[in-house]
Design goal:
By secondary structure, this protein is of the alpha+beta class. The chain has 4 helices and 21 strands. The strands form 4 sheets. It has a 10-stranded antiparallel beta sheet with strand order 12-6-2-3-4-21-20-19-13-17. It has a 5-stranded antiparallel beta sheet with strand order 5-1-7-8-11.
């Protein structure tokens, strides 16, 4: 097995750090799935209740996120690599770039006395006499997941949703959800084809609703050959989800340039998608909940 990837765009490097930082706050363990055309980062899914969080980065474009990307999986039939590591360890390895510029970051799967993901970066230090380009290196211990266990980390990539609506600014939602999480354990999101999004919390005493207008809402993309011929006939879709889990997501997400979209499967699931630059996105699926 082989894996090597290089990032040398400063903004992409910062975005990569933000993804790892977000995931480390959501879950202790990080799963890294290396495929020929993309790199998937995901937290250990709470599959028992349908909650998933992952980031997908396109690896096919040399002017995209990765300037170099090489991999060789376990065999030709299963050309992938699954490995797990502590998200906090990955974050520490990248922490230097939070406040410092680097020329590149290189990720490489190596084996010393145990499998490790090597993280190498080069920076420039200028003093009165010399210009230095020291290299910073870390080796993160990883566990390579055997083929027989891959199904434990399967992601629901093909989910049918009813309505898809653009979301308002993350800062606005962050403050709003921070207040609502103290009012009720659940929040209901309503999307309508009138381009409106509402967030509603209900208690025995009061109902608090926040409304956003002039947001583009369309029937959601449906996977499969009949996607175009079988559009949803709903003019409104809603989903009630855990307020604290949704609030935690917006508390931790901190991307530079992102387009946010909510995909709603009526009364079943909510998907928040964060589209970043250079063909990378973060997906978060929350199942509908009925607890009071």
């Amino acid at each position: 097995m082989k894996f090597r990837a290089v990032m040398n765009d400063g903004i992409n490097i910062k975005e990569f750090l933000n993804v790892i930082s977000t995931f480390s706050r959501m879950q202790k363990n990080l799963i890294i799935n290396v495929q020929p055309s993309k790199l998937l980062l995901q937290i250990e899914s709470e599959a028992y209740d349908g909650q998933y969080l992952w980031c997908e980065i396109d690896a096919t474009l040399r002017d995209g996120f990765f300037s170099e990307y090489l991999m060789d999986g376990i065999d030709t039939e299963h050309n992938q690599i699954y490995m797990t590591c502590l998200a906090a360890s990955f974050l520490r390895a990248l922490s230097y770039v939070r406040n410092n510029a680097v020329e590149y970051i290189k990720l490489k799967l190596i084996k010393t006395h145990m499998p490790c993901l090597a993280v190498e970066m080069s920076t420039t230090i200028t003093n009165d006499q010399d210009v230095l380009t020291p290299k910073i290196q870390h080796a993160i211990p990883v566990t390579v997941v055997p083929r027989s266990e891959w199904n434990q980390y399967a992601i629901p990539l093909e989910v049918e949703y009813d309505l898809s609506i653009a979301m308002p600014a993350g800062k606005s939602l962050r403050g709003l959800l921070d207040k609502k999480k103290n009012l009720a354990p659940t929040v209901t999101l309503y999307a309508t084809t009138n381009d409106e999004l509402s967030l509603v919390v209900e208690t025995e005493v009061v109902t608090v609703a926040s409304h956003y207008r002039n947001l583009k809402c369309v029937p959601a993309h449906r996977p499969g050959p009949d996607a175009d011929s079988n559009p949803t006939n709903l003019s409104e879709a809603c989903c009630r989800v855990d307020t604290k889990k949704l609030a935690t997501l917006f508390e931790t997400i901190n991307f530079y340039d992102v387009i946010m979209t909510a995909n709603i499967r009526h009364e079943q699931a909510l998907n928040i998608r964060f589209d970043m630059r250079q063909h990378a996105f973060v997906n978060y699926i929350l199942p509908a909940t009925n607890f009071e």
